[in-house]
Design brief:
The chain is built from 18 helices and no strands. The chain has a single domain, classed as Hydantoin permease (Orthogonal Bundle), CATH 1.10.4160. Helix 3 crosses helix 4, helix 6 packs across helix 13 and helix 10 packs across helix 18. Bound molecules: tryptophan. The site of tryptophan has 16 residues, from helix 1, helix 2, helix 10 and helix 14.
Length: about 450
């Protein structure tokens, strides 16, 4: 797809947009991050806050972000600038685009490291070491893997190079076709693992952990982590969806497509949680193992299943594909900016942003080994990059997008762009985007700071 300033090429159909947007939404956030954050933050209450955030904040902001993208039809920074001019508002709004470019870049730096783990496990899982492996063995193998900066570094380099190669070729094409196959396959695979988990002996304990809320286990920061995870998992607040929205033909319903993507994303996260926690309890593991959770629990299941090495390979391959379609979305705003505003060709823009991500990613690589004790306020470099982006930049970016779409843009414009058949639906969206989303995010921030 060619990049041009005002006459952008468009998606072939509504399906193409849905596929690209769900490709961006469904990724490591659903399969790796959601279970580990739920485990770290006490389970049920965290999951409930996450689900409420998706509905009350995720839905209106996803619609708002797509709408701004379609109206602006450029990269996020230029879209925000153009729309602000159109609404006779301050040029300050282009900083929303900036915030997104930087957040996406920072997220990709560690995303690539974790996706590298999935690639490594794709090759490791069929080794005899994993046959009939128990919890202690699986934990030991993961620890050994994690402690090697060389291994982690090599896989990080490989994943990032592949991502930048795909980005260099533009947003549509092969990846779109791949997503069409990959997503149903991932869904089938997760459902299979869910059935396996049902027979594992830890099912009722796992389900109780995930779905019966115990608010005494949820801290103020935990609430913020759940909110941040809603933004992260849906891929909101940094202009990814804005970029995809900019390719959306004007007769496609933004609301319906957004709802579909949100439903699919949430379903995948829950299915992943349902597969993992029964295994955690059946094998006497702790739910709060941190980022290694799925890499320590799932191999036990694969090691015990008939033909598990093959199923394991398939599963890690699918995670890899899910990750790369998200990675592409994370870096696209930065690449689009460098090529639209800095006069770089796409090739050079990819090289520059890829090199930066790689370098910053080394901070994450070392956070799991040689710099594991290098902490500031009890957080490693990886934890800082994650906290700054998921808990601060995405929610702030998202709220600014909501305020812009709800308050700054004229109602006539947003209504015309959304084209909802039932005028009441537009009113609901307006209330959510104007009041509910910004106020909820503000309350969560105040709660995490201990003010309320
Ligand atoms: N949503 C993706 C995941 O769950 C990651 C991602 C893609 C993302 N684009 C984003 C996260 C934009 C935040 C913002 O893995």
């Amino acid at each position: 797809m060619t990049e041009q300033r005002f006459v952008h090429a468009q998606w072939s159909s509504r399906l193409a947009f849905i596929l690209a947007a769900s490709g961006s939404a469904i990724g490591l956030g659903n399969i790796w991050k959601f279970p580990y954050l739920a485990g770290d933050n006490g389970g049920g209450a965290f999951v409930l806050v996450y689900l409420l955030s998706v509905v009350a904040i995720g839905i209106p902001i996803m619609i708002a972000e797509t709408l701004l993208g379609r109206r602006g039809r450029q990269s996020p920074i230029n879209t925000m600038r153009t729309l602000a001019e159109e609404a006779k508002a301050s040029s300050f709004w282009s900083y929303v685009g900036w915030l997104g470019v930087i957040a996406g870049f920072m997220i990709l730096s560690y995303y690539s490291v974790i996706a590298g783990w999935a690639m490594a496990y794709f090759f490791k899982i069929n080794s005899a070491l994993f046959e009939h492996i128990d919890a202690a063995g699986s934990t030991k193998l993961f620890e050994a893997f994690k402690s090697s900066p060389e291994f982690l570094g090599i896989w990080h380099t490989l994943f990032l190079s592949l991502t930048m190669f795909v980005v260099r070729k533009g947003v549509s094409g092969g990846l779109e076709r791949l997503t069409r196959l990959m997503m149903p396959a991932l869904l089938v695979m997760l459902v299979m693992l869910d059935f396996y988990a049902m027979g594992s002996g830890g099912f009722s304990q796992g389900m109780a952990f995930l779905f019966s809320p115990d608010f005494s286990k949820l801290t103020g920061e935990g609430v913020l982590v759940a909110l941040g995870q809603a933004f992260f998992s849906l891929g909101l607040g940094m202009g990814s969806i804005m970029v995809y929205g900019s390719y959306l033909p004007s007769d496609v319903s933004i609301a319906k497509s957004s709802l579909f993507v949100i439903a699919a994303d949430t379903l995948v996260a829950l299915l992943a949680g349902i597969a993992i926690f029964p295994l955690v309890f059946a094998n006497g593991l702790s739910p709060s193992m941190g980022p290694g959770l799925i890499f320590e629990t799932l191999p036990i299941a694969f090691g015990q299943m008939q033909g598990g090495w093959f199923i394991g390979m398939l599963f890690f391959a699918l995670i890899f594909f899910a990750a790369i379609t998200s990675a592409v979305a994370l870096i696209e705003p930065a690449v689009a900016f460098l090529s639209e505003n800095k006069g770089m060709d796409r090739e050079k823009a990819c090289l520059v942003s890829g090199a930066g991500c790689w370098l910053l990613g080394l901070g994450t690589v070392f956070s799991f080994n040689i710099w594991a004790d290098l902490k500031w306020m009890d957080k490693t470099i990886y934890e800082w990059v994650d906290t700054l982006t998921a808990e601060i930049m995405l929610p702030v970016g998202g709220v600014l997008i909501a305020i812009f779409a709800g308050w700054v843009m004229s109602k006539a414009d947003s209504e015309a762009e959304l084209k909802l058949q039932d005028p009441r639906h537009y009113q609901w969206w307006l209330i959510l985007v104007r009041y509910v989303a910004p106020i909820c995010v503000l309350l969560v921030f105040l709660d995490a700071l201990g003010v309320i």
